[in-house]
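Work Package 3 (structural annotation) set out to generate three-dimensional models for the target panel prioritized at the project kickoff. During this period the team completed the workflow that converts sequence records into discrete structure tokens, so that structures can be stored uniformly alongside our sequence database. As a representative example, we reproduce one entry of 172 residues exactly as it appears in the project archive.
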Amino acid sequence: MRKTLYILILSAIAYSACTSEPAKTVAVADENMDLFAQHAKLVQGYFDAFCSKDSAKVSSFISDTVVRIAPGYGDTSTSKSYWMKICKGWWPLFFDLTTKDVVMLPAINPTTLKPDGNVSVYATWVDNAVNGIKIIHKYHGLFKFNKDHKIIFADEYLDAGGMFKEATAPKK
């Protein structure tokens, strides 16, 4: 009796597997992807302004209440003015700053694992220092935005110490 019941159950499962309709998948547009696209353009605008050493434009992307975890060891700032001071400190070391191979990806909410409208970016920076040294380095940054589309949080990774060492080395 058990064997018969077992065979009937397996037959029913096999029959339903063979006759059921294929699974349907529906692509649901996530409203945060549009927000991500807007914010990705803002991050690119920030990069462009930084590369052109335009302090007013750089400042326009940053919230007054920003928190930035900079790539320098222990360098966390909680003010826009400090971030701008750091930018202005780097700029005299370089005559040309560019980014290439920029990849912007949607940041995700760690609970829902869905896009949250913020931006994770990978890039290669190519910096020509005034001392004649060309510095090429990898970069990763996470940028979060407020409802006014200003950067309220930035966490950036690159070898700032190595970059500074190269940029301030004796002229070649």
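The CA atoms of residues 44 and 102 lie 9 Å apart.
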